[in-house]
Specification:
It is a single chain. The strands form two sheets. The chain has a two-stranded antiparallel ribbon. Helix 4 packs parallel to helix 5. The chain has one domain: Orthogonal Bundle (Jann2411-like fold), CATH 1.10.3300. Strand 3 and strand 4 form a beta hairpin. With 196 residues, the protein is mainly α. It is globular, with a radius of gyration of 17 Å. It is built from six helices and four strands; from the N terminus they run ααααββαββα.
Length: 196
C-alpha cells in the first residue's frame, strides 16, 4: 500500500499512522507545477480514501475501515484538511500550539483494550465522520508521542507541500531545499543586495 498524495511529491511519508494526516494534507493542489486536488469530487476523493485507509491499516496493523463518501462528507473532509493546513504553519509543527483562528473539528472515538493488553484509540462514526475521527486520532497520538510537531508544510507559499521534518533539531522549513529553499534564499539574497 502506498500514500498516493504524498508520493506524487516524491516525499518520504511520516512514520506510522501520522502518514495518514500527511497524505490528507497533500491531497490539495500544490507544488510547482501544481498537482490536481485529490478531493476535487466524490469519485476522486473516494479513490484517495480507499487507498489511504488501506495504507493506514497496513502501517498500523489494524483493520481497514470501510468509508463511503458523499458530497456532505466530502465538504467535512475538505474542511478538516484546510484546518490542518492552517495549523501546519511554516516554522511550527501542526497543532503544536494554540491556533484560536482555526475552526474546530470533532470525531467520535473510543478507547479499547485489545487482546494484546494494549489500549488503543479507535475511530468511530460512518462515512466522512469516521475518516475525520481517524485523522484526528492520529494527530492526537502524534501529539502524545511528540511527532506531530515534525509534520509541516513547505515555507514556500506557492508550494505548501506537507513533509515530515527529519532534521535533528526540527528546523526544516522546505519540503525540498533544492527546489523551494534555494529559490527563496536566492530571492532573499538578491533583495538584500538591492537594498545595499
Amino acid at each position: 500500500m502506498t500514500w498516493s498524495a504524498t508520493e506524487r511529491y516524491r516525499l518520504e511519508s511520516a512514520p506510522g499512522g501520522l502518514a495518514l494526516v500527511q497524505d490528507l494534507l497533500n491531497t490539495v493542489a500544490a507544488g510547482g507545477p501544481a498537482h490536481r486536488d485529490l478531493l476535487a469530487d466524490v469519485t476522486d476523493a473516494q479513490e484517495w480514501t480507499n487507498g489511504a485507509t488501506a495504507a493506514w491499516a497496513a502501517v498500523t496493523g489494524l483493520q481497514t475501515p470501510h468509508v463511503t463518501l458523499d458530497e456532505a462528507a466530502l465538504r467535512v473532509i475538505r474542511g478538516l484538511r484546510d484546518a490542518l493546513r492552517e495549523a501546519a504553519v511554516p516554522g511550527a509543527g501542526p497543532l503544536a500550539g494554540d491556533h484560536p483562528e482555526i475552526p474546530e473539528h470533532s470525531g467520535e472515538a473510543a478507547l479499547r483494550l485489545g487482546g494484546d493488553g494494549v489500549v488503543r484509540l479507535e475511530a468511530r462514526g460512518h462515512g466522512g465522520h469516521q475518516l475525520v475521527a481517524l485523522v484526528l486520532a492520529e494527530v492526537y497520538e502524534g501529539q502524545q508521542a511528540d511527532t506531530a510537531r515534525r509534520l509541516k508544510t513547505c515555507r514556500n507559499p506557492e508550494c505548501r507541500v506537507a513533509f515530515y521534518d527529519r532534521s535533528r533539531n526540527n528546523s526544516g522549513a522546505w519540503h525540498d531545499v533544492k527546489t523551494c529553499g534555494n529559490a527563496a534564499n536566492l530571492r532573499a539574497y538578491r533583495a538584500r543586495q538591492r537594498e545595499r
